[in-house]
Structure formats: structure tokens, C-alpha cells
Amino acid sequence: MYSRRFIWLTLISICFAFAATAQQLSKEELIFLTPEWKGERFPDGRPKVSDALLDRMKLVTLEEAWAVLRNENYKFQFEDGWQTINPDSVLVGRAVTATFVPGRPDIHRVIDDRGHNRDKRVKSQNSWPIDMLVKRDVYVVDQFEAHVDGPTIGDNLGNSIFTKTGNGIVYNGAIRDIKGLKEIGSFTSFFRSYHPSHHLNDPNGQLNTTLVGINTPTRIGKATVMPGDVVLGRNGAVIFIPPHLAEKVVKTSEIVRLRDMFGHQRLREQKYTPGQIDNRWSDEIEKDFSQWLNANIDKLPVPKEQIQELLKQRTW
Fold it and tell me: In CATH, which of 3.40.50.150, 3.50.30.40, 3.30.420.10, 3.90.1170.50 is domain 4-48+80-241?
């Protein structure tokens, strides 16, 4: 069994190896690192989970998603302890990742030169990943929990991110301009801390961070994140769902949701006892559940076609 420290050090080494050759993964490398995904992809190779599935994901609880991933042996996808903007909202989208390290002038200069001259990127490094964002993306940033003189996101970049994505951020560091970020309205975001200082980005003077990876594997706290992972943030915590498991997470959640609704209703009606509902259901209850699904198919908070698919699979 590998230690968690070993896993993290290996991941960091991979990120630096990618950064040394190409700051953004090639399409071929991104496909190589996401072999389980068989669906649509963006032009750069990033998995593209459908908008319809993202819509359904908004009703999934963290417990439901965590249980599915745990059963699939994905043990390092969850991270909690966040501060939030719009804490009662749910954040769902496709991850675009960025990895920063504490500023180092020699690395910073060559990355700057290559980015500006070869890749035709503009402005400072902290804006490069943001320029790539599209609708339904979530900007996922390892900013190594930088605090004083660390914030790279305030209300200006926050407005840009929201305009491009309609979403927020998962930001492993400090942000600034919280008042302005809250005024955006639906900028549902998770961050580590707040500080009124701003990011310093001059390799010939003061330099706080260097960007070493765009859309590479990254680490957010105890979680490993890949570009294209489905981000589900709610209740002060975030889980990163591998794209090939997103549909399973959603369908499992929908089944649990329907069974809970049915069970609660029958308990209120006193048709069954708590012991009958809490344990394995009898054939009689399963048959009643199927009849209830048929009778309420147009009223339930699950797409009708999904309920019809579920009913086809049932034997009661």
C-alpha cells in the first residue's frame, strides 16, 4: 500500500514533468490519462460530460457521490473545510485545472517567454487558464494555500470567470475583493482564505507564484483532480467525479432519491413500519414502489425517461 505522501510526491513529479515539456497537456496525453472516458471530448482532448448530465448532477448529495466513488476504489476525490461564496448554492461543472508553485524567477521567465512567444498567450500567467474557460466549466486551482500577497482572483477576474462559465471556482488559496465577488450573484465558489493583498508577478522584482500546469493532473488538498472531472460542490465541501463515473453517480442518486420519497410517504401514511422501510424491502413493498413510480411518473424530480428505464429493469 503506497503512502499518501508518496502518492502526492509522485503526482507533483508528474506535473513538473509535463510542465517541463508542455505547460498544457497535449490532446494525446490528455486522452492517454483519461482512458475510461469513451464519450465526447473538447478539441484539446478534455472529457466533455453532457450538459443534461450536469443538470441532473445538481440534485446529487455528496454522500451519494462519495459512496459510488468509494465503491469504485476512488478514495481521494473529496475535500472539505472550504470557505464559500453563496454557500446555499450548488456548484456543478467540468474541471479546468491550473497548478501554481511558489514563485521562482528562472522557471517563471522561461514559461513566460514560451507562453508569449510560442503559444501567443497574453498578459500574466494567472490569466492564461481563465482565457481557456467555456460555459459550464469550473476553474480548479492549486494555489498551494497562498495567503499574504497570494490572491490572484478578485472581482475583476471573478467577473471574467463568471462571464465565460456561468460558474465559480475551487481555489486552494486566498482570494480578495469578497464584497465584489458576492455582488456577481451566482458566483458559487470554494476557497481557503481571504486576504486584502494582491498577487505579485514580476520575475525581475517581487514574484509570488509561477504557473507550472494548465489542464494537468493536480492536487486539491487530499483530492486528485483531472481536467474534465465533474465538480460537485455543496455544503462547504467538494467532490471531483471522474467523467466515466458521472452517469453512474447520477443514476444511483436518482434511485436513492425515489426510494426515499416513496418510503417517507408510506411512513407518513402509516402503511409500513420504520422497520419495514429501513430494512431490505419485501416483494410486496417493491411491487408497491413500482406502482407508485408509474402513478407519479410525471410529478417526480427525476426525468421521465429515466424512470421508464428503471421500471424496465424491475421485476416487480
Answer: 3.50.30.40
